[in-house]
Amino acid sequence: MSAVPVQAYLALALILFCIGLYGALTKRNTVIVLISIELMLNAVNINLVAFSKYGIAPSITGQIFALFVITVAAAEAAVGLAILIALYRNRQTVNIDEMDTMKH
Amino acid sequence: MTFSGEFLAFMSLALVAVIGGVLLLNLTKVVHMVVALVFTFVSIAGIYVLLSAEFVAAVQILIYSGAITIIMLFGIMLTRHNDTSEPQTGRWRKLLLFLGVLGFAFAVYIGIYNLDIAQTPTDLHVNNTEQIGIELYSKFIIPFEVTSVLLLVALIGSIVLAKRDDEKEAEEE
């Protein structure tokens, strides 16, 4: 019926998730770590939408879950950047290695 | 597998998405990394269109390519805007992480490569937004309202966190 099998979408999501995971673990700039996490959440969204069309019981629910994930990801990015700016004001650094103390 | 239009569209979109991700890992300037990721986000929106999720694709363009990229650029501009993320991580640590991620990818790929789900015809593409709206306001009304509370909390929380501490500054002056 469809030319693209569901495994192709899952493999694409897997590749993007792995890129995001590697970036989040190796990059030193906090903004890049945050955006790598966004990439991982996007990969999860691809899975949700793919299963909402090609899953065992296709329904619209997968797309609604993807919308909720996008909302929570946006909230997370906003709060993360606010924390980053507050930290930068106190410590003058965006390097994630130097953000290792609980108190100033 | 035939070379139909859908297959070609999927392959080109997936290629652009993966290239954007690889550029994120390999570029040196922070601003360039964020701009490379815009390509990934836009092509993921194209993937959603292929999966007959037009509303999610529009939301993806609006939120990710629009809002989150701009807010990340603001975050970079307000901190170290000419930062080049220097590779000061140890070579061994990077290699070990790469092997770990590769092992994870292999383990998941074993799980999905011969996944065979019988495709059933769906009507997701017919009035996609209307379907989402009906479902959201009938089955998912409580999560929907909780999400609005979450967004309000995130809004107030980030304002309070990022606000300049006026009293402390007045004392310092």
TrEMBL record, chain A:
Keywords: Cell membrane, Membrane, NAD, Quinone, Translocase, Transmembrane, Transmembrane helix, Transport. It catalyses: a quinone + NADH + 5 H(+)(in) = a quinol + NAD(+) + 4 H(+)(out). One of its GO terms (biological process) is ATP synthesis coupled electron transport. It holds the Pfam family Oxidored_q2. The chain crosses the membrane at residues 6-25, 32-52, 64-88. One of its GO terms (molecular function) is NADH dehydrogenase (quinone) (non-electrogenic) activity. It is found in: Cell membrane; Membrane. It comes from the Bacteria. One of its GO terms (cellular component) is NADH dehydrogenase complex. Its EC number is 7.1.1.-. It is a multi-pass membrane protein. It is an enzyme of class 7 (translocase). Belongs to the complex I subunit 4L family. NDH-1 is composed of 14 different subunits. Subunits NuoA, H, J, K, L, M, N constitute the membrane sector of the complex. NDH-1 shuttles electrons from NADH, via FMN and iron-sulfur (Fe-S) centers, to quinones in the respiratory chain. The immediate electron acceptor for the enzyme in this species is believed to be a menaquinone. Couples the redox reaction to proton translocation (for every two electrons transferred, four hydrogen ions are translocated across the cytoplasmic membrane), and thus conserves the redox energy in a proton gradient. This is NADH-quinone oxidoreductase subunit K. The gene is nuoK.
UniProtKB/TrEMBL annotation, chain B:
The keyword Lyase does not apply. It comes from the Bacteria. Its EC number is 7.1.1.-. Signal peptide: none annotated. Keywords: Cell membrane, Membrane, NAD, Quinone, Transmembrane, Transmembrane helix. It is a multi-pass membrane protein. It is found in: Cell membrane. The chain crosses the membrane at residues 6-27, 34-51, 57-76, 96-115, 140-162. It catalyses: a quinone + NADH + 5 H(+)(in) = a quinol + NAD(+) + 4 H(+)(out). One of its GO terms (molecular function) is quinone binding. One of its GO terms (cellular component) is plasma membrane. NDH-1 shuttles electrons from NADH, via FMN and iron-sulfur (Fe-S) centers, to quinones in the respiratory chain. Couples the redox reaction to proton translocation (for every two electrons transferred, four hydrogen ions are translocated across the cytoplasmic membrane), and thus conserves the redox energy in a proton gradient. Belongs to the complex I subunit 6 family. This is NADH-quinone oxidoreductase subunit J. It comes from Cytobacillus oceanisediminis. The lineage of its organism: Bacteria, Bacillati, Bacillota, Bacilli, Bacillales.
